[in-house]
Amino acid sequence: MQNKYQKDHPNHKSSISISNDITIGNPDQTIFISGPCSVESIDQLEVTAENLIKNNIKIIRAGCFKPRTNPYSFFGLGSEGLDLLCDIRSKYGLKIITEVRDSSHVDEVIEKSDIVQIGAKAMWDYGIMEACGKSNKPVLLKRHFGATVTEFCKMAEFILNYGNENVVLCERGIRSFGTETRFTLDVCGIEWLKANTHLPIIVDPSHAMGYRYAIKNLVLASLALNVDGIMIESHPSPENAKSDADQQIPLCELESIIQSSKTVLSSINKELI
Question: Which residue(s) pair with 98 in the sheet?
């Protein structure tokens, strides 16, 4: 029996509609997603939303339930943060993607978000997979930093097998022997996913690198691979961010990244949205 993530034809590619004007997997378009690592305040989200709209970015990312490696880190605002994101959506018309940390709040995230993000640390949480699989809400599944691409796809298969076909894969870096960067962006793995699955693929250079100085070039390199989307972290004041401060770019740099991205995409006849 063929796995549901596998291509049944060499040119078969799935697309996932988020709204009338946003489709992940459109062969003529690449989706750009940005926003802070964590929801910190309504003021932070307001400034971010205004900047995203100025740059024609239609999806805001921000975490409310944060899985942390350090028990003393900021764990997010939880349900309060999710409600703030909903307020931003109502006011600015942006779609929201936010992370589910565990199965205790998965139903709330499914209900209130436009795209459910299953983070790397939750990739093997079967309770989350079942809940997301029984929903029809679009799901962005991030690859665990210790998972092979086949293991990654097998977890996507759980969601697909429960009946939800709206699955997007996200490469966000794997753990290797180097300590100079946070992780290693697996461009070979991206090409394998393109060749062996029909699911849309988004790249997250922020978590792969861990340092903002290289994000722009990694964005451009990822776009040249003809992926379906890019997701990066941005913040009004990264040095004061409550989580992942080193890898979030200041909002003032977004315009430069967007313009350079359009140049790369024009060479492969794609549009940035």
Answer: 116
